[in-house]
Write a structure and sequence with these properties.
Length: about 200
């Protein structure tokens, strides 16, 4: 079970996540209370060891801006969390792995996932005006009987108390969490983070 923790703003929190053995660290370069600058992201990436993936999150950014940020931060994976075109994703994939996030509210939203050119699909809750980290869950039972051509990362309202059941119900490649391990937006709670990792690994 792969674990991605997202929305980091502090070096100490990144170090704590790495010590717990998380697989990926997500850095929000887009918008919202967890947004950080490329300069700040570069500082955080410097404390991420080579075998832990640094993921940069973008929302409807243009290709030039994305590639510039990737050079500055030295992140190794791009997460697209907006209405990015398949053509843009295809071009980015020639240089980086791409995770495409989809806002899921019904079966039709799941059907739209198929065929998008990405290396993994992140399935998140659909919350108007909020991009990730909403703390809102969606109906995981919608995934019953559906298979995808790419690995699925489950997101949306996951907490130490709910992640185990969510994994049991959906058997995803990985899980993604932001608000579920925080004491405030962008401020990670070490105990909740440890409890989340333990529950997901079980």
């Amino acid at each position: 079970m792969k674990i991605k923790c997202c929305g980091f703003t502090r070096v100490a929190d990144v170090r704590a996540a790495v010590a717990l053995g998380v697989d990926a660290i997500g850095l929000n370069l887009a918008r919202g209370p967890r947004k950080i600058t490329t300069e700040h992201a570069a500082e955080l990436v410097r404390v991420i060891p080579p075998l832990v993936t640094a993921v940069a999150l973008f929302v409807d950014a243009d290709e030039t801006s994305i590639l510039s940020a990737m050079r500055q931060t030295r992140c190794t994976v791009i997460q697209l969390h907006g209405e990015e075109s398949p053509e843009l994703a295809e071009r980015l994939r020639t240089r980086f792995s791409v995770i495409k996030a989809f806002a899921i509210k019904d079966a039709a939203a799941l059907a739209a996932v198929h065929g998008y050119p990405a290396d993994a699909y992140l399935l998140d809750a659909a919350v108007p005006g909020i991009v990730g980290g909403s703390g809102v869950a969606w109906d995981h039972h919608l995934l019953r009987g559906i298979t995808f051509e790419r690995p699925v990362i489950l997101a949306g309202g996951l907490t130490p108390d709910t992640v185990g059941a969510a994994i049991a119900a959906t058997s995803p490649y990985g899980v993604d969490v932001a608000s579920g391990i925080e004491s405030a937006p962008g401020i990670k709670d070490a105990q909740r983070m440890a409890a989340f990792v333990t529950a997901a690994r079980k």
